[in-house]
Amino acid sequence: MIEMHDVWKTYPNGAVALQGVSVRIDKGEFVYVVGPSGAGKSTFIKLMYREERPSKGSIFVNGFNIERLKERKIPLLRRQIGVVFQDFKLLPNMTVQENVAFALEVIEASPKKIRQRVNEVLELVGLTDKAKDLPAHLSGGQQQRVSIARALINNPSVIIADEPTGNLDPETSWDIMRLFEEINNRGTTIVMATHNKEIVNTLKRRVLAVEGGQIVRDQKRGVYGYEN
Amino acid sequence: MKIRTIGRHGREGLRNLSRNGWMTFASISAVTVTLLLLGVFLLLAYNVQQFSKQLESQVEMNVYVKEGAARADVLELERQLKSLPELASVTYVSKESGLDQLKDKLQENASLLEGLDKENPLPDKFILKAKDPQLIGSVAAKVQTLPLVDKVNYGKDTVEKLFKGISLVRNSGAVFVVGLCFTALFLISNTIKVTIFARRKEIEIMKLVGATNWFIRWPFLIEGLLIGALGAVLPIALLSFGYSYLLSVYPSFMYFNFAAVDLVYSVSTILISIGALIGMIGSVMSISRFLRI
Fold first, then answer.
1. Eight-class DSSP state of A167
2. What integer pLDDT is reported at residue B251 of this predicted model?
3. Cβ of B209 and A76 within 8 Å?
4. What is the pTM for the complete model shown?
5. Given 3.40.50.300, 3.10.360.10, 3.40.1280.10, 3.40.718.10, which CATH number is that of A26-53+79-219?
6. How many whole angstroms separate alpha carbon A78 and alpha carbon B200?
7. B 173-212 residues with CB below 8 A of A?
């Protein structure tokens, strides 16, 4: 599903974000990526949907060879994975349903199919009654649900989340995590960078700890392992 | 691209106009001001051009035939003159009709010329117009070499001064039009750049969700085209109204008739094309650097 072999990433300003990372994530897994700020978690995540490019090493996601992937083909990769961000990244001028539909419009799906899928995923995240609202009129937790719905709409085999609960209060964070659990139970792989100690320690899953650009710990049913 | 996707891009482009209300208004205003300026200048430049052409076309040369030339020889000279490719017109004025014209000019003082009928001192002459008035000097030199030509006169000094003035006006007009076009291009694409900069996050999000570059570009392109075209509406209305009003009040200036109102239609076409084209190019160029993600 996701494989990295000796991946290095050096930014143009000379900062070294990753040094020789190798990892394999199988279908259906739920993986937390933890570690202090600036350890390389975000870079690790961004490489998977090709927002960043590795300086060295090879990465395969869903059969796509990331470092050889042509600029033109990037959209094809991104349509097969759902990405959820800390800041939600919703289009401010579009309603909830338009935001969710956008991910299907880009593959030129039929309006009928779009309508049907939008209803399905909005029901799954429990936002059917907010379909016509603008993101600005929703709470943080609701906005994150919209972005999860958008990530789900293409039926991706993997969802990548970069601190999805980072901007949310504890209670809302738990709602969102329950949603991710449910999605994972349906067979979707989930890779999630997080700073939420309580969540990691309660919902015990595989934990990858990144420090100084390297994976220093890889535990099945692991713990957070850092003091917040 | 599927047909319904084309429709989708069109709708999106239109909706973006209203979604970004104030930005749209600012862009359209910038286009309006620039095109109005350009339009006024185009009207002016065209009329100045026509006026100078008319001045030029009034330049003619008198060719005097030698005293005592036989009728047949004068006809031969006329044939030779008419065969010169540089000439636009050749008019023969016999000494008799020359005298009649002089009498007409003097009117009540024509009695001064009494008695000249018997011994007409005027020579036969030809009045020539060159196809390219600017070349009248060299045509004159050529005509001078023909047999039976006594003198060629085209008011050398005055004509040269006139031509110098005309080319100065024309050249500076051309420089101004080109400069104004560039200013329009810069102003319009800059305004669009500002509106797009405000939306760079949206472009980034679209890319992250898997949109291709062209999927993102099309609505922006249509939006830019509409902004450019809408920006041309007010200038076109003002110029049409203003120019026809001007024509109704001052139809002419120094024997020069201002270009007919049709000119406004041509200028309008130019304005709306420039607006739409620059709007399109401006938005496509401005989003390109935000697509690299």
1. T
2. 82
3. no
4. 0.77
5. 3.40.50.300
6. 19
7. 201-202, 204-212
